Structure formats: structure tokens, C-alpha cells
Amino acid sequence: MGKFSEYVGSQFANPRGLAGRCSCAAMNVINRPMYLLASELASLSGANRLLDAGCGNGYFAALALKLGVTELWGVDMSVDALAAARQKNRAAVESGRLHLVRGDCCALNFANGFFGAASSINTAYFWPDPLCALREIRRVLTAGGYFFNLLYTPGYLQRFPYTRSGFHFFTPESMRGLSLAAGFTRVEAGELEKGKSFVVASVK
């Protein structure tokens, strides 16, 4: 794989600079159906507090808050993406409905049972330790809390050269197995677009 493809792939994991802004803009378009579904699921869950693990530039946060999520915490490793999220959602930040934190999904700085629901949209590929991240997300959920994990299939992702380095690939079955291993009591996987994307809904 060429250095350019490797660089492009790294921008999806940790957007930075002009290339990071371009990658986030592309994700906003490509991932919009997933963002809409996750927003609806989060709203239907009835949770007052939602964790968005890997919030990027805040595009999903804006949709979720508009669709009725009361309060949202976004966590991301990218300083630049968080700055863009604050700018995009300034009113929500100032009103206290949106909280943006730099952090790692394997070491979430929240108390046990803090959130009623959590979401992750196309970020699990970049978790250094997926099982650790799932256990942490489960830890910060209240009993009966939902985790909605939306992903693209290996077959879809492997069409792109930039995914050949730095990406973990998951099938619905493998992510379901990991979620059960992390301690979730009920885990269901469903197809979104045939052969392209899926959602794994887990309950603590």
C-alpha cells in the first residue's frame, strides 16, 4: 500500500488539519443514513444522557439533539474534530446539552452507569483493543442501557486501498460475539444495506 493511501486511512482514525476536515466532510455525506438511524434509535431508547463514542466533527450530535436526545457527551481523540464539533454546535454547547471531551474509548472518564444509551458510528475499526472498548462502554451504561454500534462490512471496506492499514474489520457475527464477551446481556445484529452495513444493538 502506498504512503498516500496510508495517510488517507489515518485521517479517518484521527482527523487533523485540512485533510482531516475533508475526511470529516466526506464522512458526513457517506455516513448520513447511519447518523439518522442512530439518532432515531437513541431518541427511541428514552435515555436522558447519550454517549457518542468517536463523535468526530459533531454532525451526528446535531442530528441526535434535534431529534430529541436531551443531553449528549461526545468523545473523540482528534483535537481538530472536537474543535469543529464545538463550532458546529455552539448553541448546544453553551446551553449545556452537548459536552465534548478528548478521550479514549478504552479509558472513559465517566462514572459507572452514567449514560442511558451509547452509540458508535464507524469508529470501532480504530479501537486498539475492541474488547476493552466494549467493556468500558458497557461500564458507563446504566442497567438496561442500550449501545448502538453501526459499521460497514469487511467486503465493503476492503474495496478502498486506505483501509489496508490501521483498520479492524468486523462482521455482524464477530461484533456480536465480542459484545457478548464484553458482558452485554442481549445482543442483536441487523443488516442496514445489504452487503454494505449493519447495526449491533446491545443491552447491559
Helix vs. strand class: alpha/beta
CATH topology: Rossmann fold
Main sheet specs: 7 strands, mixed
- Structurally, the number of domains stands at 1
In short:
It contains nine helices and seven strands.
Characteristic key phrases:
single chain, 204 residues, alpha/beta, Rossmann fold, disordered N terminus
Can you give a write-up of this model?
- By secondary structure, this protein is of the alpha/beta class.
- It has a single domain, classed as Rossmann fold (3-Layer(aba) Sandwich), CATH 3.40.50.
- Helices cover 42% and strands 24% of the residues.
- It has 9 helices and 7 strands, in the order H-H-H-E-H-E-H-H-E-E-H-E-H-H-E-E.
- It has helices at residues 3-13, 17-30, 32-44, 59-66, 79-88, 90-95, 130-139, 154-157, 172-181; strands at 49-53, 71-76, 98-102, 115-121, 141-152, 186-191, 197-203.
- A 7-stranded mixed sheet has the order 3-2-1-4-5-7-6, sandwiched between helices.
- The longest helix is centred in the N-terminal third of the chain and has 14 residues, at 17-30.
- Mean pLDDT is 86; it is low at 3-23.
Question: How is the secondary structure organized here?
Answer:
Elements: H1 3-13, H2 17-30, H3 32-44, E1 49-53, H4 59-66, E2 71-76, H5 79-88, H6 90-95, E3 98-102, E4 115-121, H7 130-139, E5 141-152, H8 154-157, H9 172-181, E6 186-191, E7 197-203
Parallel strand pairs: 1-2, 1-4, 2-3, 4-5
Antiparallel strand pairs: 5-7, 6-7
